Structures are given as C-alpha cells and as structure tokens.
Amino acid sequence: MSNTLHIVGGGMAGSEAAWQAAHMGVEVVLHEMRPKVETFAHRTGDLAEMVCSNSFRSDDDEQNAVGLLHWEMRAANGLIMQMADRHRLPAGGALAVDRDPFAQSVTAALTSHPNISVSYEEITALPENGHWIIATGPLTSDALSRAIAAETGAEALAFFDAIAPIVYFDSIDMSRAWMQSRYDKGDTEEERTAYLNCPMDKAQYEAFIDALLAADKTEFREGETAQYFDGCLPIEVMAERGRETLRHGPMKPVGLTNPHAPDVKPWAVVQLRRDNALGTLYNIVGFQTKMKYGAQADVLRMIPGLEQAQFARLGGIHRNTFLNSPTLLTADMRLRSRPHIRFAGQITGVEGYVESAAMGLLAGRLAAAEILGRSLPEVPQDSAMGALIHHITGGAEAKTFQPMNVNFGLFRPVDGLKGGRRGRRDRYKAYTDRAKEAWQGWLSHSSLDGTQSS
Asked: EC number(s) on record (predicted)?
C-alpha cells in the first residue's frame, strides 16, 4: 500500500500522471468519480474527456510555446499527445482532436495497463498518508473543494469558464458560408480548408452586438463574482468591453476571401472548426458564452449561414477553482502543509488541456521517482515544462496570481538576441532550441531503462 500512487481525477492531468508513473514501474490507482458523480460539463464517464474546445492549439514547436510543450510531451512518451496525434483533425497549423475517440482511446490505454487500476468513486477528504496526486481540475467536487480550502486556510480562488456551442454541419447554409483557413495556412488542401467561415457586413455585425448585449445571461449565485480567464472570455463579456472587441478577436475578418463574393471584404467573420472525424459537428471558435439557452440559439442564428442552425450542444458556464500555487505548493508540486500530496493540472493554476496534461506528466514522474527511491534533477527552467512549473510554484506574484497558458514571456531571455517584434522569430527559435536540449537532458536522468517505449 505504501508504494502505491493514488491519483484523484481522471482528466488530462490525472490520466497523464497515471501513464507516466505506471511506465516507471509504479502501481497506480486512478480515482475518478464519474460517471457515478456527474458534473455540469462532462457528458460521459471516459477518462480525459474534452469538455470545452477540441483544440490543443498550435503545433508549431519552433515558433510557439504550446507547440513546444507538445514536442516535450511527445519526447516523454506522453499518452495525451499519442492519442491526440492518433485522432487528429484538420485545423490549419493547430492540433485539433476528434474528442470522443480520443477520450475512449485514453481510457482503453489506461484501463488495460497492468500497473493501473481505476476506482470509480468520489474522494471527499484529503488523505492522511500515502502517495497522492490531486488532479481534479476545474470541476473539483464541492466536498473536496471544502477540504482543500480548510487545509490551506483560505477559500479556494475561483474564476469562471465558459463553453462554446457545437453545430450540426448539415444545418449550416453553405451558399453563404465557405471553407478556408486564415491565410490558407496548412500543408495540404484539407488543412487549408479546415475552417468554416460565416461573413458579416457592418449592419449585420452591429445588430449581432446589440442582440448579444441585450440577451439574457446566466446569473451568479449570491457571493459569487466573475473573475474570467482572459483566454476563455464569454463573447458577451468581450462585447461589453467595446463594440469592436469581437471584430478584432475571434471575429476578425483577416486572411480570408469569400468565394461567394470575392470582391467584398467582410466586416467580421465567424469561424467554425470541425469537432469530429466524420465532419458532422462543428464548434464555433472563440464563442464561449453564458447566454441562457433560449436567447443563445436566437442570437447565434443571426450569424449568416447559421439561420437554420441546429445545435448538438449549446454553450454554458461553470465555476473553475484553482490554488494559489505560489504560496501553497513547493517546486516539486507538493502541498507545503501535507508533503505526501502533490497537485497537478488546472487546479494548480495552469490553463488549457496541454498545460494541464504537462503538469500531470511532471507530477507522475516526480511521485514515481520518490516511490522508487530515486532522486531526480530539478526540472530545467529553460524547458517549456520548467518555465511553466516555475511560474506557478514561485515565479508568479502570489497577490495577483491567475491561471496562465504557457507562453514565451515565462522563459528566461537568451543573451545577445534582438528584442521587439522584428527579432521575435529568431528569439523564439532560440527559446525552442534551448528548451529541447534542456528537456532531453532532463529526460535522460528521469527515466528508467525501457520507460520511453510507447
């Protein structure tokens, strides 16, 4: 029992942590409360279910920090990246995933692993002893949230996450919409036509903004305040910040030519991205929303091409809890007051599927090494993993700590390189080259013989 690693939460972080530890030879029990205990956002009992977007964002490992994180996870035999690659959908330069087969494959890989057993029950209290990783994500149950808050001596911080709607493709009017990635980005025709575009003229855009601002919204319960993560703002919150905000955000009309009217430049464009391999479902990109369902359908059907849209899922909003990690966690992700417990994933204050899985990867390896009596070197700060974990466990300002995506602003500067926009390409390439070397060096010291086989 003392050499068993217990992981609470079977999302991206918990699934990756279990995979990594099991491949290092450690017995793992993965505790997942679904499907016995449901959440607002989940639809199934599958592990690693994608509840918001189906995108892992940019896959460019030379010029983009999240693409670099993809590279590091692949180099570490990451299960999440293996299955994302297996169930990849066309998305220009992004890595989009067919969400249901992806989650089913992760579930199958974990449940069939000889070192992993899955226990379907809710954990409601912090364990007193043993080896534990808590990776319960943004929808940590009320009981466990209260236990964490009681232990840390403060109420858990929280912001609100919003989910984008999904549309049935056969309900979209393709005489008004067209298929094209911005700037025709992609190496194949499928990639260059990965997005479905719905154009608006100025009058249509202004009417849409008016309706969006007037629509009924989900109200917060007494005592709740809305602290949104800027990378996942509801569209109506963006509109409240200024009428042009959406036109310069998810509805920007750049890099696109409407084949139905090639000489007319759209005032704004709504993009949809394929959500499954069959191409029967499309999600509205960047259209997270807290509008009530009735109002939501009416407003979204104002979009040209979506007048008759049928929705497989409407958008929604849910509470998202996270720790003040700079004050509560050590550099190796332990809870300071209970060092036998590590935290991983979105509850630590990272944002995004990839970042969550990456923190699970590190927590799984660190916990497994401890159980096996091995000492690992510090995760190199110059890697994407290291930059991210350094930020959340001490690099960030605790008083203003908010969830963070991986980005090059977290990386230490490279001496001798030009700053500003003009030097950005060379600077990013230097970051990624340095990170890859540092990460490969760390992997060579953090794995047992044979653990890198897939």
From this structure: 2.1.1.74
